[in-house]
Amino acid sequence: MAQVIVVGAGIVGAASAYRLAEAGLKVLLLEKEATFAQGSTGRSAAGVRVQFSEPLNVLLSYHSILEYQRIPEAGYRPIGYLFLVPEALAEAQEEALRTQKALGVPVERLSLEEAREKVPFLEEGLAFATFGPMDGVIDPHGATAFYLKEARRLGAEVRFSEPLLGGERQGGLWRVETPKGRYEAPFLLLSTGAWTGEVGRRLGVEIPIWPVRRVVYATAPAPFPHAFPLTIDLGTGFYLRSEGERLLFGRSNPEEPPGFTEGVDWAWLGPTLEAGLARFPFLSELSLDRRASWWGYYEVTPDHNPILGFVAEGLLVAAGFSGHGVQQAAMVGRLMAEEVLLGRARSLDITPFGLERFLKGSLVGERGIV
Predict the structure, then answer these.
(1) What are the helix (H) ranges across 4-70?
(2) Which keywords does UniProt give here (predicted)?
(3) Rg of the Cα atoms in the chain
């Protein structure tokens, strides 16, 4: 019998399974798909950054990036994140910058002239820029494969094509069922991303996490050389970055309803480009590659921050990252192991991200959601 059942073989579940197995626990990982990283992990834009406003988000990402730096399979590339700050958000971004510096993470305040050395843009309405030199991108598939390999090496069992159909708590154990069998363990960890609300209902637990579609558009190879950091116009939420000879770009649609809507939203391309061209006129020189564009899901909570830790007896959740799961997974895996072994996480205080915050109305005011 397993001591911990982990549900979900994305990067968060894989990292958690690895750290739980490393701690000497017998781990069973169940994944509904035929292989790993088929949900939000595999469709991520792959960015990692420390530029958040809330200390816990800063530290979750910082410690995760430090770990990715040590894992060759993670393919970490410090291309940087460049935030273009409008006048209206200048004071809030200055406060976030002070928080980041107080925590000892590397973030720089740039003049607009300095920022334009990294990517050309129109300065109208902007106050300054911030740049994170340790921010960048990783290979989510490579990192997830590494964690699963290490988990198996340490004795974890990984079962694919086994969706969790239901379960209940009986006699101090979680007893769950898949199409292929029944399993039981004292602890059950849901790292099921956008599907967490649905999976929770199968266990009789209400978890406020919903899927919201997000789209990444890709250009054809550009007619000019470029090596742009992941650049975000905070005024509109439009972002872009170089990926080889292409550019990737996107912008979250605030009107996108929750749900498992499938396919690239081509109707949102126009509003996205309108915002992008207003700041980055050079985009008019590029053509779109529809076949290289893709879509995936954000796993969204009421305050767009994750739910971490115990939500019921023996039941833990690590989900709801609203696009930040890849960048925080490494540290979250360590913290979930501490939750199980020690009764609560010790390396970082994750109580601000507990489920009970929604019951108390104490939502997390993270301003760095893109």
Answers:
(1) 11-22, 55-69
(2) Oxidoreductase
(3) 20
Domain-terminating residue out of 282, 298, 314: 298
Residue 130 CA to residue 192 CA, distance in Å, equals 33
Based on the fold, state whether residues 336 and 273 are members of the same structural domain: no
Instruction: Find the DSSP H helices in the chain.
Output: 11-22, 55-69, 90-102, 112-116, 140-153, 196-202, 269-279, 325-342, 356-360
Q: Encode pLDDT of 327-356 as tens digits.
A: 999 999 999 999 999 999 999 999 999 999
Residues 6+ apart with CB under 8 A from 295: 43, 213, 214, 215, 216, 262, 263, 264, 265
Domain with 12, as residue range(s), is 1-79+135-209+301-370
The token pair at 273 is: 């480009």
Looking at the structure, tell me whether residues 201 and 216 fall in a common domain: no
Residues 275 and 305 in one domain: no
The CATH number of whichever domain residue 259 belongs to comes to 3.30.9.10
Q: Report how many domains make up the chain.
A: 2
φ/ψ (deg, to 5) at 22? -60, -30
Single residue among 248, 275, 298 that ends a domain in this structure: 298
Residue % of the chain over a pLDDT of 70 = 100
Angle at 110 between CA 106 and CA 116, to 5 degrees: 120
